[in-house]
Amino acid sequence: MPRLQSVTITLQILVQLAFTAMIPVFLLGQGTRDDPCHEILLEHGDIFIMDGKDRQALHAVPRVLDLDRALKIDENYEKKITAVENKIVYEYLKQSRINLNIRQVN
Predict the structure, then answer these.
(1) What pLDDT is recorded for position 11?
(2) Do 45 and 79 meet the contact criterion of CB atoms below 8 Å apart?
(3) Model pTM?
(4) Which residues form the Alpha-ketoglutarate-dependent dioxygenase AlkB-like domain (predicted)?
């Protein structure tokens, strides 16, 4: 479900870090729920920063693409995640998604 950030914290930055073998489909709205959204595919290691007006926007991850679908989008995608040297971490990332959010609040 998309969330609308509190107006009281709109000037602070929101940083999101993606660690995953699966690709989250990140939606970023433009105002109301009826306005069209931008679809952004976040890949392993991506950093997404929202500030100002974007911080107020509706945003959500309604869908996560599995590794097979990620490879259809980018056949070299698996090489990006195989850079993870720890086999246990690599196997975990192939079936999970870690999303780290860093927010500044008053």
Answers:
(1) 57
(2) no
(3) 0.65
(4) 25-103
Strands 59-65 and 47-50, sheet pairing? unpaired
| Alpha-carbon torsion (64, 69, 74, 77), positive or negative | positive
Q: Following CA atoms 16, 22, 28, 34 in sequence, which dihedral angle do they give, to the nearest 10 degrees?
A: -150
Residue ranges at the known binding site: 59
Measured between alpha carbons, how far is residue 58 from residues 62, 73, 80, 87, 91 in Å?
A: 12, 26, 29, 36, 32
Q: Can you give the pLDDT at residue 100?
A: 81
| Residue closest to 26 by CA, chosen among 44, 10, 14, 38 | 38
Question: What does pLDDT average to in each consecutive run of 10 residues of the chain (106 residues)?
Answer: 47 75 82 83 83 79 82 78 75 78 76
Binding-site positions for Fe cation: 59
